[in-house]
Request: fold
Amino acid sequence: MHENEQISETEIQALRYLRNAIVHGGHSPSIRDLARALKYKSPRTAFLILNGLIEKGWLKRKGDGALQIKRDMPVTHDHARTIEVPVVGSVACGTPLLAEENIEAYVPVSVELAKPGNKYFLLRAVGDSMDQAGIDNGDLVLVKQQAHAENGDRVVALIDDVATIKEFRREKEVVVLKPRSGNSTHKPIVLKDNFIIQGVVVAAVPKFD
Reply:
């Protein structure tokens, strides 16, 4: 990674488009998508810009071919009071939630939300099981990494390698992970020891285009 290598205005535009697609859209755009977004007639120009960003250390190709944002946008005064937080995509079975291959990008988050001294990650919410708790499908959820929770906390729990966001309740000898949804198909999950708390939800960031 060439930390001091300059990035052009064209590369910044490409990086901004790619970051929005990966972080908020949940997918890596194709070369043709990038060419259309930058209004280039030839995909080759977009290919060369993409390769340049990879060579300069802004992007990386993961093993499955998906793009990973390695560094955030060039720092401005707006980023002075932020810390970079990893965005976790779909979690591969058997891998830790914050394993390198699960991280899609790093984005700046205000230190008023992500307080220094703690560890945080962003997870994309899927489904409507927590829509009445302020978490909608596609939202990015800011999570403080910790292994314990109090009753009423919105938590990220790992059950059989699948991350789920629910309300935490401890009742006698069991833990109940409760949905907060207007959709009656979502039912509480009753567990004893076969789950891991990954963290507590701090805030939800609505999906935007």
In short: The mean pLDDT is 83. Residues 9-25 form the longest helix (17 residues). The helical segments are 9-25, 31-37, 43-55. The chain is about 20% helix and 30% strand.
